[in-house]
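Lab notebook page, bench 4
Experiment: in silico fold of construct C2
Operator: M.H.
Input chain length: 1182 residues
Purpose: comparison with the prior construct
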Amino acid sequence: MSFSCLIKLLKEDIKEVLPYVFPANCGEILRATVCSTSFNYLLIYLKDIVERFDASVIKFAAEADKHIIDPGKLPDQISQYKISEMDYSQADKHIIDPGKLPDQVSQYKISEMDYSRWIKWSEEVHVPSTIDKDAAISDIFITIPNFDRILTFAQRQILTTDQHLLFCGPQISGKTALVHRFIKHINSLSDAFIFYWLKTFNRFNLLKMQKILQKILQKHNQPKTIVLVVDCFAFNEATSGFLELLVNEKQIIVDGVPQNFEHDFRLIIIMNDTEYEKCYEKKIFVDNFISIFVHSPTKDELAFIFENLVSWHFQSQTFSGEYISLVTSLSAVAMKLFTTASIQPKRFLPYIIRLAKGIMFSSPENAPDIDSLLRLFIHEIIRVAVDRNLKKKAKSLFFTKINGAMIDECGTKVETLFPTKKQFIEEDSSDFYLMKKTENVTVGLDFTLEKLMFSELAAQETMEGISYSLVTDKEEFTRNVENLHFEFSKNHEDWQINLAVTDYVAEHCQRIMRVCRQAGEHLALAGRIGSGRYQCLKLSTFGVIGQIQHIFINSDNPNEFEKSWKRVMQECVLLIAKTNQPVNVVFHLDHTVKTIPQQWLGMLKHWLLTPTLDGLITDDNILKHGEQIVDCERTLATVMQSSNIRLPGQRYCQFVSLEALKDIEQLKILLSARVIDFLHAIFLIPPESLPMFEWCSADHFLPLTTEEEKNMGQKILSECIFAKKEHLLETLQNIFETTMELFTDHHPSFDIRLWFQLCQKTTNIYNTRTSATITEIEKNSNETEVDILQLQAKIDAIMDPLTTEEEKNMGQKFLSECIFAKKEHLLETLQNIFETTMELFTDHHPSFDVRLWFQLCQKTTNIYNTKTSAVQEQITMLKDALKTLSTIRQLSAMSGKTSTEELNVDLDDTDLILLMQKRHLNEDTKALDELTNTITEVEKTSNETEVDILQLQAKIDAIMDEPQKAFVVVAEEISEFSNSDFKKLSMTLKPTLAIRYSIEVLRRVIDSTFQSKKSTIETWPHLQENREMRIAKLETESKLAAVICKWVLAAIDVAEANLSVSEEQSSVKKAWEKLHQEREKLILLQKEKDKLEKSVAALKHNVEALEQKITKIKRTINYRQRGSKIVDGLSSLEPRWSQQIQTLNHLMNNLIGNSIYDAAFQTFLLDAPPEIRQRLSRSDVK
């Protein structure tokens, strides 16, 4: 704060009001001016509570009033007041008594039109808000009183002084947005400035910044003041020395040598208050600088910003007025709940903007009533406030306060908004705003606000807007996410997602997808390594049909840090130029975030929030992809305008003309806007680093509870073939808990990855080894010498004896793969064989039946399927051969009545006709092209003639317009006189010379036989110069005579004007004749063109028909020549093929029985003693 600056402002303001100061009002005007200027200047630098300032003003003003006679009163809350810039003399309801002190002096100012009037800053905005329904949320600026006060002060400084500006304040206070609005406002007032934003890239590289600064300053050759804007400035930045040299010495570095810079130059620096304190301590950027402090908005100002953003969305989505009247209640609920969540009021701004952006998911289709909107509001404020690293106690308090806040501010309960399926709701019960519900939403009996979730996967596609609705069935939603996982696994065999989709995983996936569905929004995923963050991100990206890019930060030095993410961002920008898909850039910061200085992250944040292409990709590369950018933008505009699918915070896309392909600046603007729409930075960080990412959304992966751990284990072990899965799960849990106790440095959220790996590997190992054991048993069972007892021990280790019903079920399951039709009959036959055979084994063990029954069914199935496939393949091949041979015969017999020689003659004749038709077609086509060119030239000449006529006629009309209008006016005046007036004029006794002359002129005009005296008419021009003969004098004698004279003069003027344009009229006449001839010629040419077009179309049709005929004849000849050779060569094989088909069909009829005997022999007799083979072979098996 500079006292000299305040004195200068006071001097200017007092000088301005001095002409309006009189003895009667000097006390009021001077006191109001001094107080308004001083207080509003002090409020810019006030760090204390504004209410204390207002109270102090009232206290000291009361003491001062004791020593002043009839003093001018000040507002009570003067921080809200200023001098009005408008005349409120007709609007006294907005103005307090000029002799009274406003209640909140900090909110008032003095009127600039009436210097004794105070007006609130909020009632008379100097720099209005920029709210356009087609703009992105990043381009919207809501003007609050403190910002308006700062912008007004900064405007005075840049327009009336030559000092530089320095904007400083705490983080997340809106400094950058304020400067953007300030620049736009200054450009609307004056064109004397040209602003350059110093880009984010290479700010740590001394040599590159020297060249960049030199390029910006030297390319300027306009008579304007250069204003260089430096955002995110740091005390130890590489540009600091260059800027000091430029500001203090008016010099720049060119090739290492300082040189004078002669142009006007101004500097605007934006920095945090901590960096400003370092600069102020070292006296850097203090002299010739006006420091402007930007404080964090108050709760009332934040509520005002939120209400304006939500109202803007409701108006752009054509919601009804009831929704707009709700915003005040929503803002009050938000302020209460953010306070409950232990968020500092100075940090509210990003939360407020994210909450407003979340409400922008709503549309008239997915929020058809007020209750639907309130449900969405509760969900979004939970996502904004609770998903971060909120402590358990604070989270519990937050959920308990929601119901009270909704009752106090919105007049409705949580139970009313989320009725359960068994809850009875009367149809005529009182409803919020008395609006009729258009949908019945019910939740489960176990529903709590902690489980509240909205998703686009919860509903079918809507006609308009995003299908973002309440998840009423959590299990169905989890299945939808699981289907996404299955589809991903099927399409990406080499890149699997190691997830078991439970409710825990589905919730986190939806939170990530919610951020990906917003424009210009970024996300910090907090959790320990192995907590499943990246796997959830992969699945979520697949769910939104997006792409993933990875950035591994190098924190060795600032230049390497910038290179590590700049290179990937180049690829992402090119991807966004080609497709309308979100691109998720994953920053792996788990091990490096603590080693990265805050300044480096600030540069990255600045580029992500306001991405620029300068220094990232070249202009040639942008022009190269210009066509793809325009095509994607047109596609996006089509979807947005047809289905109203506009992401929260996204701009409204318009159709881009093809002229943009050559305009590099427009392409840059389009591509930068697309980067804001589709680029999302995803930061993988530990939970303790979350405060560093307060500017973006966040999701904290909490440790698994016991129930969540059990659900995940059950999900993974469901694929295990072990029967007693519950016992296996308990065993694994005990092993897991015991093992985790050995890790003294592990974090609780570390359990997720280990638990997943333990269950997954147990399932895989058990399934693999069990299958291998069964295979080994089957292999050993086919060997001739096998120890039955060893085999029995292996089988007993795996399976228990089967009952008859189980034996039948197992047989049905094995035979389900057999392609034999009558499976029931086959099963009965095998059972008879099995039972008969087993009676012969007197020493078999009951559990031995399982292996033999399995082998009998399995071998029967395998043998029958294999043989049947082989035989059926041979039958199909032979039938296809016979069918092909028959087809060849049919094709060879095409046009059977016509010989091949006749076809060749017809081919030659048709070819000759085609040649002639093509010649005529070429001639007519050439004539048509020439005629088209002739018509174009005649049309051009005709248009030029028409333009000449219009120009000549406009010239004639310009000359004739004024005389004709004057003549019409005078003629109307004459028509107003009656016959009696004319008779009265003619019977005038002793008329004056002027009256007599007017009568004679009228008679001469009316009566062609009347002959006046020469002296009367010939002397008319001379008599006009006489004062007695003037029309004004004549009106005193006879008004009719004066009007007659006017009419005659007007007629003379029209005649003279007509005579002056006679040459132009002649030219117009000739031009019309020429135009008529040209149009007649055009008509004849057009008729000839139509005739030629018909001829060309007919010839084309004939040519196509002839070409098709030639092709058909050639095909017929070809079929005959080739077909006769094939038929002659294969005709001797036809009887043999038919005989083979009959033989194979007979074999198929007996195949099932042969397969059964073959399988039974391999199962029972291959290793049986000879006596058992003989007994079994003599048994009848049917």
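Observations: The first helix runs from residue 3 to 17. The chain has a mean pLDDT of 80.
Next step: discuss at group meeting.
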